[in-house]
Design goal:
By secondary structure, this protein is α+β, with helices and mostly antiparallel strands. Helices cover 41% and strands 19% of the residues. It has six helices and three strands; from the N terminus they run αβββααααα. Helix 2 packs across helix 5 (101-121).
């Protein structure tokens, strides 16, 4: 299984890694059965994601997709962050092996889960804005 240089770089030197204390929203997705669990934290000021961090338990591709996803949404509006797809994360990493595509799906879902938590904390029903976040069985990891 060959990884791109960008995947290896984000795995070896992940960006925005760590637990955030003063977060506006936090989302956790994944399943211990597939071996990948992502927790993403966002700090929102106005409508802008001013800071983002993650903690991921999983393979190198899971860490790399988490790192890249945080880079792609930092400084963006919530609406822009919600438009980020797993395909865009994979493209930014110059691709992933087919068996690791589910890692990019989890990264997309982690962003949605964090935004959903943010809206819930604001007393706003997140479902009409964020949509539903499927369980890991639907992420394509084969469970």
């Amino acid at each position: 299984m060959a990884y791109s240089e960008k995947v290896m770089e984000h795995f070896a030197n992940p960006r925005n890694v760590g637990e955030m204390q003063d977060y506006s929203g936090v989302g956790e997705v994944g399943n211990p059965k597939c071996g990948d669990i992502m927790r993403m934290y966002i700090k929102v000021e106005g409508d802008i994601i001013t800071d983002v961090s993650f903690m991921t338990f999983g393979c190198g591709a899971a860490i790399a997709t988490s790192s890249m996803a945080t880079e792609l949404i930092k400084g963006k509006t919530i609406g822009e962050a919600l438009k980020l797809t797993n395909k865009a994360v994979m493209e930014a990493l110059d691709g992933l092996p087919p068996v690791k595509v589910h890692c990019s799906v989890l990264a997309e879902q982690a962003i949605k889960a964090a935004v959903s938590d943010y809206y819930t904390r604001q007393g706003i029903d997140p479902t009409p804005i964020v949509g539903s976040i499927p369980e890991c069985e639907e992420c394509g990891c084969g469970l």
